[in-house]
Amino acid sequence: MQNILINTCQCRSRTSSVEFGVRLAARIGAAVTGTYVYPSLLQAIPRFSTPDLVSTVLANAEAIAAEARQSGDGFVAWAHSMGVANAAWHVAEDYLPDAMADIATWHDLFVLGHDDEYPWGSASDIASLIFATALPAIMVPAGPVDALALDTLVFAWNGSAEATRALRAALPLLKRARRVVVLEGEQKRAAREIAWKPPLDLDGYLARHGIAFESRAFSAGSDEAGARLLAECTALSADLLIMGMYGRGRFSEWIIGGATRHVLQHAALPVLLCH
């Protein structure tokens, strides 16, 4: 987790997700990349447009790009003041999932915000971005969040590949936590699996990484699993929920599982997800 990619909804704003990502980078000694992506205005020009309209659109696009580029020095200086040694700022003109997919190739973690007031801030948009980047991601809800208070971490465990990947991605944070609680649910197998495969020895895996944890049984139907997970996090005063992200491709879209959808829509705490 040495390179953290942050999606910035506005080039000059410091949203909760941007502040979380920068504070997290400072805490774990990671580099951070703030990224602002704006859509290509040329794609919105009607086919038979007048030269004046084309010129206006191009001027608007250049103004957006110039403002975004000028914000870079301010972002880098602010990140340095927060304790981040290595900070960068990127501006791209593209469809947001495509741009993030490209930039994500040299990053280890993706931080993005859930705020319906911003473009690409809804739960379905967040799912699309996470699937596009193929990175472990931390979704940060709107409102103030203290990234330095990652003391109590809750891990939703069901034996799936997604949950295992989320666990591995969260190791740097788990090692720093004061308290780790594992909610052990019913072991999940992919529908396509026929042959038996050896399960992960969770106790041994965490022990080898020097992570002590509490284990709690977790049982909930598929319709209520997401709500129950968030209720457990509230009861435990959790600072971060770690879970697998379940979804399947259907034509050109991703259909996310019920528990994942509920958590994306209603989580009031940061959530680390991995597909």
Automatic annotation (TrEMBL):
Sorted alphabetically, which CDD domains does this protein's record hold? USP-like (cd00293)
Q: Which Pfam families match?
A: Usp
Q: List each copy of the UspA domain by range.
A: 153-274
Superkingdom field? Bacteria
By sequence similarity, the record places it as follows:
Belongs to the universal stress protein A family.
Question: What is the name of the protein in this document?
Answer: Nucleotide-binding universal stress protein, UspA family
Which organism's genome codes for this protein?
Dokdonella immobilis
